[in-house]
């Protein structure tokens, strides 16, 4: 039986063949792409007047925030933002 290069049914004939993956669409490595994307995100947030706050919470509160954000169909960050605004408005 002759080996046909377009035949993909008989996989045993092509076990040693290395097939090319997805074509490279970006000249940068993945690590550099992530760095560039993060810089662009930071610039977008800065233009929109957003500031970054890092917050550590216990796992129980984290799960509650996740569940509440899912039920309201918003992101966890948006939910926390709404909760903080509501609490600050209540204090004032």
From TrEMBL:
From the UniProt entry, list the residue stretches annotated as the region Disordered: 1-50
Q: Basic and acidic residues bias: where?
A: 1-10
Q: Where is the composition biased (Polar residues)?
A: 28-40
What's the protein here called? LexA regulated protein
Natural source organism? Psychromonas aquatilis
Taxonomic lineage from the root: Bacteria, Pseudomonadati, Pseudomonadota, Gammaproteobacteria, Alteromonadales
The gene designation is ybfE
């Amino acid at each position: 039986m002759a080996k046909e290069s377009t035949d993909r049914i008989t996989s045993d004939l092509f076990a040693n063949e290395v097939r090319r993956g997805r074509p490279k669409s970006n000249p940068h490595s993945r690590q550099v792409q992530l760095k560039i994307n993060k810089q662009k995100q930071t610039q977008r947030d800065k233009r929109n007047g957003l500031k970054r706050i890092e917050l550590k919470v216990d796992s129980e509160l984290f799960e509650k925030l996740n569940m509440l954000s899912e039920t309201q169909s918003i992101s966890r960050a948006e939910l926390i933002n709404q909760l903080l605004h509501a609490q600050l408005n209540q204090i004032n």
